Amino acid sequence: MNIARSFNNWRKYRQTVSELDRMTSRELQDLGIIRSDIRRVARTSLSV
């Protein structure tokens, strides 16, 4: 994987984590996510 792609993946991961972190627990629950799963969800979003 080249450096540019790695950087873009890292940036997308951090953006996803930040957006989910800003949500309330209720909003996360509506999406079927618990707060402790945010990083896992962000990682799996890269493979989509």
What does this structure look like?
The chain is an all-alpha fold and 48 residues long. It has one domain (3-46). The chain contains three helices and no strands. The two termini are 16 Å apart. The relative contact order is 0.17. The mean pLDDT is 93. Residues 3-39 form the YjiS-like domain.
Layout of helices and strands, plus pairs?
Blueprint: H1 3-22, H2 25-31, H3 38-46
List keywords for this structure.
48 residues, mainly alpha, DUF1127 domain-containing protein, YjiS-like
Question: What fraction of the residues are assigned to beta strands by DSSP?
Answer: under 5%
Give the termini separation.
Answer: 16 Å
CA-atom Rg in angstroms: 12 Å
Query: In terms of structural class, how would the helical and strand content be classed?
Result: mainly alpha
Biggest sheet architecture:
none
How many helices? Answer: 3
- Mean pLDDT across the residues is 93
Please give the share of residues in helix.
Answer: over 70%
Query: How many distinct folded domains?
Result: 1
The SSE string, one letter per element, is HHH
Residue ranges: pLDDT <50 for 5 or more in a row?
Answer: none
Find the count of extended strands (DSSP E, 2+ residues).
0
Offer a concise description of the structure.
By secondary structure, the chain is mainly α.
